[in-house]
Structures are given as structure tokens and as C-alpha cells.
Known about the structure:
By secondary structure, chain A is mainly α. Chain A is built from seven helices and no strands.
Amino acid sequence: MKPIKNIEEITKYIIKEAQIESPSEDFLDKVMNSVKLESKLSLTKVYQPLISKSAWLLMITVFFGLSIFMFAGNSENSYVLSKVGVSFFDKITSIKVLENISSINVFKNIHFSSTFTYSFIFFSILVMLQLYFIKNYFNKQNSI
Amino acid sequence: MSSYIQMNTKPDEYYIEQTLNGNVNAFAFLVEKYKHMVYTLAIRIVKNKEEAEEVAQDSFVKAFKNLEKFKGESKFSTWLYKIAYYGSLDVLKKNKRFVNSENIDDFNEGDLGNMQDALEYLHEKERKKVINDALLKLNEDERIILTLYYFEDLPVKEISKVVNLSEDNIKTKLFRSRKKLTTILKHVIEPRTVDLR
């Protein structure tokens, strides 16, 4: 071996001489057993979101439906309702049994000011946005 | 050798894709290819065979579980070494076993030839032990950086991804740890080889 002149070369020589270590003979088998067990587990445990897509769709529809309803019901220009077409509700209320029920309006004394309605909708949207960002943040944290 | 390894040598990406497509056995090739380096990195940090073996195994299983998240922005080996490095540090943290490393003395580069001669005099097994003992006196990150740079020939850029330090920081650490290692070895070898010369 030719003599070493600089520190760079001797370090390389030292590290090469240190060699690498070998794990036990059955290392591969141990790892593969764990890996196979892991892949079996992941097959049986298919990820299912807590709230399904259709449930989300329903919630969004109901949420926006209610928002529009509140907005239309509270504002002076109630032409929105007539444009939306509530003839379906008219038909329901024309049924005699329902007539009595529909005449009892438990909410008639509850009024929301439009300021409250707008701020409620606005804050609801903000909460949803926040949820989205927090979820993404934790997903990133958990991944390597 | 296990029955898993019957495939030809192909790039890592091929085996990663195969594994992701459901051929779990393809992952065995990656384990076989990197097990020595992953185990070496682990043992150089945790300094215990059993724990190193456990960390190495966990690293591979973790890599398998997160293989979908591996985007190929770095080499597969870099990604895997990073998992092993942080896994090993976690074990150290859990056991609160951090060793104070040695201070650097002045080192005269004129002594380099003598050091090489002294090392050559030693029997291979003893040489390995002396060097490994000296390595263990460095900091964890210095040991890993030296091993990756000089044994694995990994570029500074890739090493910086493994240990999460800037490239300049790696270069400084390489410079310092080279000095440290040779100084420590000088102190260990010289008293041993007095009788031999």
C-alpha cells in the first residue's frame, strides 16, 4: 500500500478499515415476517373515513339549504322564496292533518337578525377551513 | 441466503414499484441490499447489538409501511438511512445515553505516515476494534457523517438530507471529525506500538 499523505486519505483508510457490521443471519426473514404481517393488517384494515362522502354532501346541502331559507325568510324582499319555488311545501300544508301541525310554528317568536345570520355563516365557513388546515398539518407531522 | 433473493439486480425503483403493486417479496431485495449499512448506522449510534438489530428491523418495517409516501425526491437509500438515523437517536433518547465526545488536540499532519504504519502492524481484527473504539468516542452525528461519506461514498448533499443539516454544516463537521478521529487514534495506537518498532 502506498504511503498516505493527507488527513482526507487516512480518514478514508480508517473508515474503510472499520468495515461495516453485519446483522444476524435471520435478519432478512425476521424483517420479511414483520412486513408480511404488516401488509396483511393493512389489507384487513381498510381506511374508512368517520363521515362518509354522502353524509358530507347531505350535511352541506342541509347547511346551505337552511342558510338560504333563513336568509330568505328574514329579509324583507322575500321574492327569493317565490323564485326557489316552494309549491312543494304548499302541497304538504294543504293536507288536512298537517294543517293543524303547520299552524303551530314553534319558531315564530325566534328571530335572527341578518347580522347574526351572516356572521354565523361566515364563522361556520372559517371553522371548516380551519379544520381542513389542521388536518393537513397533522397529516404532515405524522408522515416522515 | 434466504429464498427471497432470486431476482436480478435492477434499480431500487423497480422493487419499490413491485412492492407497492402488492408483490411484498420484492421488498426483500431492498432489505438484503441495505441491511448491512442500516445495521452499521444503528450500531454506531446505539452501540448495542440487540438494540441495533431491533432499530434496523424497525427501520425496514417503517420504510415498508410508508413506502407510498416515498416520492423519489432523494435516493431510496438516503430516505432509509434517515429513518434508521432518527430511529437510533430515539433509542438513545429513551435510554438517555449520550456520550460526551473527546476534545480535539492539535494534530500534526506529519504524523500521518506513522499512524498508517502503526495500524498496518495490528492484526485485522484488532485494527477493526481499535478503529471502532475510536469512532465511538465521536459524537453520534459525526460517526454517521464519516461513515456515510467515506464508506458509503454518499455525496454531502445526500448526507445533509439524512441528518437534516445544511451542506456547509456537514463540511465543517467532516473537517472537525476527521481531525478528532485521527487525534484519538494517534493517542490509542502510539502506546500500543512502542514495543513493535
